Amino acid sequence: MPITIIIGAQWGDEGKGRVVDWLAASADIVARYAGGDNAGHTVALDGEVYKLHLVPSGILHSDVVSVMGNGMVINPVNLVREIKALRNLGLSITPERLVISARAHIITPGHIALDKAKEMSLGDAKIGTTLRGIGPAYLDKTGRAGIRTGDMLLDVEEFADRLVTGIEATNTELGRQGIGTLDAREAAGEYLEAAAFLKPFIKDVSIFLDQALKAGKNVVCEGAQGTMLDVDHGSYPFVTSSSPTAGGALTGLGVGPLFVEKVLGVAKAFSTRVGGGPMPTELDGELAQRLRGSGANFWDEFGTTTGRPRRCGWLDVAMLRYAASVNGLSEIMLTKLDILSGFDELKLATAYEIDGVRHEYPPVTNEELERAKPVYESLPGWREEISGCRHFSDLPKAAQAYVSRVSELCDVPINSVSVGPERDQLVLRGA
Ligand code: GDP
Ligand code: IMO
Ligand code: MG
Q1: Residues with Cβ < 8 Å from 353, sequence gap 6 or more?
Q2: Is the CB of 130 under 6 A from ligand 2?
Q3: Is position 111 annotated as part of the catalytic site?
Q4: pLDDT for 1 beyond 60
Q5: How many whole angstroms separate alpha carbon 112 and alpha carbon 51?
Q6: Across the chain, what does the average pLDDT equal?
Q7: Ligand 1 atom at shortest distance from the alpha carbon of 224
Q8: Residue 37 annotated as catalytic
Q9: Among residues of the chain, what percentage have pLDDT more than 90?
Q10: Distance 156 CA to ligand 3 centre (A)
Q11: In this structure, are 192 and 275 located in the same domain?
Q12: pLDDT at 431 over 90
């Protein structure tokens, strides 16, 4: 019966993909509820690295049904490309294994052009979006001008007309900004092919999930992005345009709250952010380099979707405390603890000081967040390599103390810690 919701507790890239892959072993359904191909979720299995942007991270389990919810914005051409690439890696992706909501919104080439134009016009104040057309697609959705995945079930000519009308509307806007417009008919061509491919996958996801839940199935809801990128609760306007927080799972899939049993927040053992906006614990120089890595390993801090180097800093526990509150986290899972091996000293931001006043949670405005000075607590580091540890008691005492202190400061249990990107590189407390 129950639902477990997986949430990014920071600015995205916390390791949600690997956590979902792990939990999918005991799930029947993995359902993604927000965002589009701005997401990049990595799952490492037996030496193969899968980078998923749209397809849910349960897809590596042959007995799990993957669901893409109405809360998502989907670029059908990129989705077909991703499905074909996964098939080439030997995965079976059929309409029995992948169900796409008929109520998700479609990202058109016009949305992508508008995303680029908007970012260019903002200059230094740009958001640093992934340029995938996410914001403009959600804008059309809330503006009641969007095209939905269910429209791909229509007669080809009817769908083509809707696409062309949508792209022509964005052309008007592009023209106003003095930017080259798109040939709407030509741009629509690839979409018609993608629609023919995707038709058999499209269903009413809400009804599908309700029936599955009533039949006792286990559903893992896969969040994308993170709490601080949430359009309502994040560091607005440096956010994405959707709702990655726990409430987004309910609206983004059309399921009722009483099925939810657990809300698991995924947090990296340090902080990262990609794109613009305030980041109180950001480091530069050697410490940041050590957290980021050189780029030689696939898990180093370079964007899965855009390849941009991620900004890195100490763990911001005040922000984690906020994520625990906004999402009602029942548990936190800490990832990439292995990266902290070798530091003499580790710091945790336990609160902020703003204009001489202590704050236990991030302030609402970015102006204040920009001025927030982290109040640091220093903890001893550890030298040992920990990626082979599997039990909490195997970890060096200093690593155990670090995890316990984070849990204590947020007042949320931490029962699992990941110490490497592979499925089995997990430390379970009490195991
Ligand atoms: P997501 O967007 O939240 O799914 O996270 P990403 O896939 O964008 O980024 C997380 C990166 O960290 C990926 O390359 C993962 O393979 C990697 N990763 C996840 N957990 C661990 C861990 O415990 N240790 C190490 N070294 N890498 C990890
Ligand atoms: P996953 O699911 C990290 C960031 C972008 C930018 C802002 C808005 O892999 O954790 P958008 O293209 O959504 O309009 O960009 O949000 N962003 C992410 N950062 N991980 C992600 O996804 C992100 N998706 C969007 O960098 O700052
Ligand atoms: Mg990512």
Answers
A1: 359, 372, 373, 375
A2: yes
A3: no
A4: no
A5: 21
A6: 96
A7: 2
A8: no
A9: 93
A10: 34
A11: no
A12: no
